[in-house]
Design a protein that fits this description.
alpha+beta, 12 helices, five-stranded mixed beta sheet, six-stranded mixed beta sheet
Length: about 450
């Protein structure tokens, strides 16, 4: 995620202030007037994803707010008033005396479902209910992480062999003859190397780093805070890397039958380490900034599910680097490339939100944005493919659910054919307003359509 921009002078506890009625949905969100309430030390502003509100801000706070990647700020016609617009980021952050909370358009339980931790919906039901009632996402995620990590470690602390090298007075393991011979006959200390069966491995190190960070998060329930402390005691002796080092280690972890049970906890650990920023305040309290990119979350969810559904039928490569031209000067990177026997047989691009220039399913036959079609056509042409697919999230910015093109397989679709080239560009939409079981059914239908389209085209 992009780095946090200048979050200072934050307060760990913010007093709630009613920011007016809920913002209307859609890109043309209602702009509501909210007084600055300067007699109050803190303000708590609620925004919906892709909505906006009209706030009274001083120029410095407006400038700092606009420097974040999470919202955009534009001056209003009246001096001292600004239009603050949320983007695709959801969560909460503090800047000065302002606490901004951005709520997702989808239901809380579906937000947790998109985290793709590999657990049944019942596992996060309590946290989804908590998030629906108190508006703060980070404490709910920490609670979910604490319970998941507790279940993981209850099966036993994962141990693995780790290669070690050191110069010792007594032999341990075996002599590293290459290093030993470089010493010109000096016998002591001996260059030793050995494999140590230890719990101090990357899986446990990353859990430790996430637990340490989670313990500093304010407003976490006391039971979950005690649970985190017990977990930290169980991981005693495991080194604690920095957040950035832990994220790098997470990328290197390969899952086998021995550590597969760690996957849900490590997925949540990554979410906390990558998206949470804390600022120390008075005593042991901290103010938190925790913002999740819904574009990235939706892309990761669709990619992971399609890889699972198409296993054995197609190889699904994510973000594979390719070139548009013969000279390899123009790089392209499709979200998904489908391969069979090493040959590219399909391509898809994933888009979370329809833009203002796009049309909705049911409005007309072209359901995607024009720029998205241009991009997909470039991918299809470069890979010498006759078809390509745009995978959208159904228009969560509208209150109504579009039903006109929902087919028997519960997947909304549309297709255009490019003039003179004959390339077919499909657009499909996953409706995240439905239940997790319905979303799973849509992913299955999408996988079947992709595999069927590739088979019919001779891929």
């Amino acid at each position: 995620m992009p780095p946090t921009r200048e979050l200072t002078d934050a307060s760990a506890e913010t007093s709630a202030e009613n920011g007016g009625g809920p913002g209307t949905s859609g890109d043309e969100a209602a702009v509501q007037r909210i007084d600055s309430a300067r007699e109050e030390p803190d303000r708590r502003i609620m925004l919906d994803e892709w909505s906006a509100k009209r706030l009274r801000l001083d120029d410095d706070l407006a400038r700092r707010l606009n420097q974040t990647d999470w919202v955009s700020v534009q001056p209003d016609s009246e001096s001292g008033w600004w239009k603050v617009s949320a983007r695709q980021w959801v969560g909460a952050f503090t800047l000065g005396d302002l606490r901004i909370i951005v709520r997702p358009k989808i239901k809380p339980e579906n937000l947790f479902f998109l985290l793709e931790v590999g657990l049944p919906p019942e596992a996060w039901q309590a946290e989804a209910i908590d998030y629906a009632t108190n508006d703060e996402l980070l404490p709910a995620v920490v609670s979910f992480f604490a319970r998941t990590a507790e279940t993981t470690l209850a099966r036993g602390l994962f141990h693995h062999y780790r290669h070690e090298e050191d110069d010792l007075l007594a032999l341990r393991g075996r002599i590293d003859f290459v290093r030993q011979f470089r010493r010109g006959g000096v016998l002591v200390p001996m260059a030793c190397e050995w494999d140590d069966f230890t719990a101090d491995v990357d899986e446990n190190r990353c859990l430790t780093a996430a637990i340490r960070l989670a313990l500093r998060v304010p407003d976490v329930p006391h039971d979950d805070r005690r649970r985190l402390r017990r977990l930290l005691a169980a991981l005693d002796g495991v080194a604690e890397p920095t957040a950035s080092a832990a994220l790098e280690r997470l990328d290197r972890i390969g899952y086998t039958r021995l550590n597969e049970h760690y996957r849900p906890a490590l997925v949540l650990a990554r979410l906390i380490l990558a998206n949470c920023t804390l600022q120390d305040q008075h005593g042991d309290t901290a103010a938190s900034a925790f913002m999740v990119d819904m574009n990235e979350l939706f892309e990761q969810f669709v990619t992971s599910r399609l890889q699972r559904e198409l296993r054995g039928r197609l190889d699904v490569a994510s973000q594979h680097n390719l070139h548009l031209d013969d000279e390899h000067q123009v790089r392209i990177r499709p979200d998904l490339t489908f391969r069979r026997l090493g040959q590219a047989v399909g391509v898809a691009d994933i888009k979370y939100k329809f833009g203002a220039e796009g049309s909705r399913f049911g409005d007309d036959e072209t359901a995607g944005r024009q720029s998205d079609y241009y991009q997909l056509l470039a991918y299809s042409t470069a890979l010498n493919l006759e078809e390509g697919t745009l995978i959208y999230c159904a228009d969560v910015n509208k209150d109504e659910v579009i039903e006109q093109q929902i087919l028997n397989d519960s997947l909304a679709k549309s297709t255009i054919r490019v003039q003179h080239a004959g390339t077919k560009l499909h657009a499909v939409a996953i409706d995240l307003s439905r239940t997790p079981a319905d979303i799973d059914a849509q992913i299955t239908a999408l996988a079947n359509q992709l595999a069927g389209t590739i088979d019919l085209s001779g891929g």
